Amino acid sequence: MRFVKPAVWIVLAFLILGLPASSPAQVAVGISVHVGPPVLPVYVQPVIPAPGYIWTPGYWAYGPNGYYWVPGVWVEPPTVGLLWTPGYWGWAGGLYVWHGGYWGPHVGFYGGINYGFGYGGVGFAGGYWRGGAFYYNRAVANVGAGTTIVHNTYNTTVVNNNTTVNRTAFNGGPGGIQSRPTSAELAAAKENHVQPTSIQAQHQQAASSNHALLASVNHGQPAVAATSKPGVFKGAGVVSSRPASPTQASTNAAVNRNAASVNSQTTAHTTTQAQATPKTTQPTNGAPSNAAHPAVAQSQNQQHPQPQAKPQPQPQQHQAPQHQSGEQGKPHKP
């Protein structure tokens, strides 16, 4: 421990002196470790359970036994009008530091990490709020194929600027994403934020106690990569990861081996994060739509067009879309 404490002071000094003045409002440092997280696994997005839910991408968290995967999940926002800014790992003072996610009126900086499904590294292209209802971009949000779930949808293709998707899960440092906050993200950092809901906290807690989600066990390919409902890791709505490229697979293996040797060097931190009193109002989006969910590439920036009104069929019983099948579907490439 005597080797960790000096490094901790370096990290704290970096956070206080090295970051822009507006950043502390969005920084929620949980832990810092000496080894970076594995690359992000490849998986498809499960179908949305009901209108009004917002996608929160999966991420690598760290516990007593090393890195473990917290599956991506659809969740209800604390109140109408709020968007999710994912957490991310950043490099500071020789350590990898976790910056916690939060809810706010705009999406802030999340390290330039390409989490997919609308979170391409900058901003969010998966949907937007209007008139108390959330409108979903069918190009990146799985609102149902051949089902009647969501009424408020539009369709705008999102294309990655790079031919090779970078699945690195941390910002800065050797091999990390070299991205800095934009002016819009700096402005978002000054806004009032709401911390993750109790449901989100319970979801992460459930993941931390699931042995199969440890990176040292799944080697970067968790059997439960995403789920439709928080804390539900079995049954309908649960999807597994797909094999990544050989280069990514070898990177995962190396990181997982190294992570096992530094578990005892983890140091916990606590910082202040701005909070707002959440409301319990849940948006109601009206009659559902029969929109298909195409598999397309995803990008960092996207304008929001007006939603398209279409004649609506009668509601029918929800079934999981075929594109989640291992033989018939292909994963989104975040």
For the sheet with most strands, the description reads: 5 strands, mixed
Global geometry: globular
Largest beta sheet: what is the strand line-up?
Answer: 13-7-8-1-16
* Count of folded domains: 1
The portion of residues assigned to helices is 10-25%
Mean pLDDT: 73
- Give the end-to-end Cα distance, rounded to a whole number of Å: 38 Å
Q: Which band does the percent of strand residues land in?
A: 15-25%
Sequence stretches where pLDDT stays below 50 over 5 or more residues: 1-29, 246-334
SSE arrangement, N to C: HEEEEEEEEEEEEEHHHEEHE
The number of distinct helices, counting runs of at least 4 residues, comes to 5
* Class from secondary-structure proportions: alpha+beta
Rg from Cα:
19 Å
- Strand tally: 16
Q: Would you write up a description of this structure?
A:
The structure is a single chain. The protein is an alpha+beta fold. It has one domain (4-278, 292-311). Helix content is 15%, strand content 17%. It contains 5 helices and 16 strands. It has helices at 4-18, 183-189, 198-208, 215-218, 246-259, and strands spanning 29-33, 54-56, 59-63, 66-70, 72-75, 83-85, 88-92, 95-99, 102-104, 127-130, 133-137, 153-154, 170-171, 226-227, 238-239, 267-268. The strands form 5 sheets. The chain has a 5-stranded mixed beta sheet, with helices on one face. It has a 4-stranded mixed beta sheet with strand order 2-5-14-15, with no helix packed on it. Strand 3 and strand 4 (66-70) form a beta hairpin. The longest helix is centred in the N-terminal third of the chain and has 15 residues, at 4-18. The radius of gyration is 19 Å and the shape is globular. The two termini are 38 Å apart. The model is unreliable at 1-29 and 246-334 (pLDDT under 50).
